[in-house]
User: Fold LysR family transcriptional regulator from Streptomyces purpureus.
Amino acid sequence: MRPMTEWDIKKLQILRTLRDRGTVTATAEALLMTPSAVSQQLTNLAKQLGVQLLEAQGRRVRLTDAAHLVLRHAEAVFAQLERADAELAGYLRGEAGEVRLAAFSTAVPALVVPAVQHLRAAHPSLAVRVREAEAAEAYELLTAGEVDLALSLAAHAPSARDPKYARVPLLADPLDVALPAGHPLADAPGLRLHDLSAEPWIFGGSGPWSEITTAACEAAGFVPEQAHSAAGWTAILAMVEAGMGIALVPRMASAERRAGVVMRVLSADQPRRHVVAAVRRGAEEGPAVARVLAALRQAAAARETV
Assistant:
């Protein structure tokens, strides 16, 4: 093994990306390199470290145990570099700068917009650039360094044990049931989710909301009968208003509610979805990112008191 002076941060980042992406071609695409350049850099890193990092596996390559050992230590280096960046940013006493944020659709009006409004008033020199993105895209952007912070549902966030990210819980968002205004159970006292087991349901054919609706109903003891499929709240609530079925709606989507729809808070078995923010580990100590996280927590706390 060579001394630490031979550890090349750029080449270690290429090795980490290969581990995460799985193939040389995907690694090259992610890093805007050619496959041959990726291979050459990793060959040079192996020579510098004096260990074999890759071995053939059919037409692909796999990381050796030595490569995984190197990356376990490299993760601590990457996190420390993020902390170094965060401390350097701390010298900007005016908190000038920009934080790039990716968030899923209902989080934008419910959490991100109130947080940005607060920051514009309290810290006008701090800019927040918002990008709407569902979880898979948001974490790709975060990993690639194209955003600084990602909001998602906890169920679709990286594991809390993932060394690359720090997770910050924000909100436990209740799910209310949307009923047509003339529905027989619209005014029923003590309404529970199981009371709606025989109803036709409206939810997406796939993706997070399909999983959330199905899981909530199964936890209440039944499998929902999907009468119609839609992904957007405007379409879902229009169908509920027309009496075509009922739907679970996150309270964060309250801005989409319609006059002909009754929103009922469920009693004992009310389901919730958990919203988290994630940053690259170490970056949460940067003053600009910390201010944005604080504003998001404040927006989340305001919603929980409503």
Remarks:
- The radius of gyration is 24 Å.
- The mean pLDDT is 89.
